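Notebook B, p. 112. Complex prediction, attempt 2.
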Amino acid sequence: MTTTQPAAPGPEVTGRPATEPAAEPFLSVRDLRVRFGTEDGVVKAVDGLSFDVARGRTLGIVGESGSGKSVANQAILGLHNPKATDITGQILLEGEDLVTARERRMEQLRGNKIAIIFQDPLTSLSPYHTVGQQIAEPFRKHRGAGRREARERAVEMLAKVGIPHPARRVDDYPHQFSGGMRQRVMIAMALVCDPDLLIADEPTTALDVTVQAQILDLLLELQQEFGSAIIMITHDLGVVSRVSDDILVMYAGRAVERGTVHDVLSRPQHPYTWGLLGSMPRLGGDVGKELVSIPGAPPSLLDPPSGCPFAPRCTFRDEVPDNLSCADDRPALPDGRGAACHLTGERRTVLFTERIRPRLL
Amino acid sequence: MTTETAETQPAPAGTRTPLMTAEGLTKYFPVRGGFPIKRTVGAVHAVDGLDFTVHEGESFGLVGESGCGKSTTGRLLARLLEPSGGTLTYRDRDITHASRRELAPIRSEIQMIFQDPYSSLNPRQTVGTIIGGPMEINGIRPPGGRAARVRELLETVGLNPEHYNRFPHEFSGGQRQRIGVARALALEPRLIVADEPVSALDVSIQAQVVNLLRKVQEELGIAFLFIAHDLAVVRHFSQRIAVMYLGKIVEVGDREAIHQRPRHPYTHALLSAVPEVALEHPDGTPAEPPRERIRLQGDVPSPTDPPSGCRFRTRCWKAQDLCAEQEPPLVRIEGNAEGHLTACHFPEAGTTLAADRPEPVLPAPVEP
């Protein structure tokens, strides 16, 4: 995602060095809509999503279950069943539209130029094949490598992702690895063809916290080595703050806020982002205070609200200017840094500094 | 950081009434193998000699990574599992091997809240039947009738009493977990074993349920055994916390001791691994000083064949020969506050700040 704003002064929030946004986005998603026909009606899983990712940068997509973050990224990979899914909009990978691309073309891209790491390494790996075979498969398919060359590549990749004794472990089956090691195998498999775009769909959610820290460090190291663009999908703002450059906050199939990690997490502008920050207990927080939870539950995507999807749960909907209605008018998300909210920019700043920040610290 | 107020500080352990005490609590699960005749070939040392006490009205947190035995401990306390060894004392009565009949009066006083709000409610029963079930089984007739009591409970957990006749599928995950809480409260228990009650929920919903549980705990004075892997949630909910690793408690103390002055290397590593959003003051300065950086090597060893001596030694950066030979006892080591026990031969300094640990602890790179 490219932001036109210069990096804000002050200490860096994340543990990663600040990288300058590249001029040309590598991946550009424009007004993406994904709809599924179901027995109950049409589910608008993604409803007008736009974002950009540049090479060498990490975009964190944050949202709760049902916010459309996984569905949108499965659309990038062309993983939806075309018979049951209606996809409109554009997904431009270096100018090539993937929405209209043929299945054969997607096959050439998947695992080669675009790769994905799934959440659950146990169900995403085949129990019948050795990890070496599974890592080598995309390499043989896309690079036309022979058996021996592919095997050497698999050993090299296993070493790169930090698996001890890679030359011996290459012939082991997934069940012989622990959860964290399996996730490393998944990462090795995703990176075997040096993809330009890596989509990590909740890659650490199933892992323990000490192993999660190892995997996040590994992803950062590998990105510095390979320079891939990464889309990190997660529900955990802490994970995003550790690995991402930019953040896109999603709610009910739409993006509600975007910006650099530092801007979004230290000066969030959307009431939903405020709610997310307030809902997380902090290791250094005041245990005497209640958590600031968001009332209610996310809307049904069968019949989403026509205006702002967050309006029914928003505490500040009465404060918007009189000429706008949260229930009827859909707020637009500006390009670059911004939030899809009818509150005026000044009002949001005042609300955050006076009412929200004191409750977070 | 030191934001705990006077009210939230627990009283010294001696002044409170013990509710449930575990001494040397042990649970081994046999591992069967062999062909054609299956034999017991080993045992999973799920829980291996735990000593702790849950006091009346207190929330006792149990944290650890998957496979450390925290859920097994919860099930042992609720006597859903039979202990392999040690003793369990509930209100001065030994219930370690109590029979069904002996347990009957106690069962209503110990309730459970489960992790998965989808599989822990019967889809064929209405909410009224689910919440009223425990009262029916125990033959309890509250004044005004069971239906009135169920409606009252629904209100307590923040649900609409008119939802009495609805089925679980009509509710969202957070609302279902509220139903689970209402069911646990139906018998006015003294102890609730909550096994990861919020980890299946979304962040915004999780906060609602944590707030509800805190309200219930404070207003009704119910003791909780709160099992979770999320250290921040446990800190927010529990006055005292025990850290488990591979079937053992490695450190126990009040929340301030565990989070601000941990001594066991594993507690340090766990706290350091939590990814957190760094908040800022309005002037742009960080709201909290940076934390120390520790990365553990590898994964938790298998509980079927735990390491000798200290179980953490295979991943510990301070391990020496002594750690393999001798198991460190869980005691109040020098420098610990009262009630803060640590099982370690070479404890760390009681701080979690990066300023006090200039060199981060990082695993050695792998040789290809």
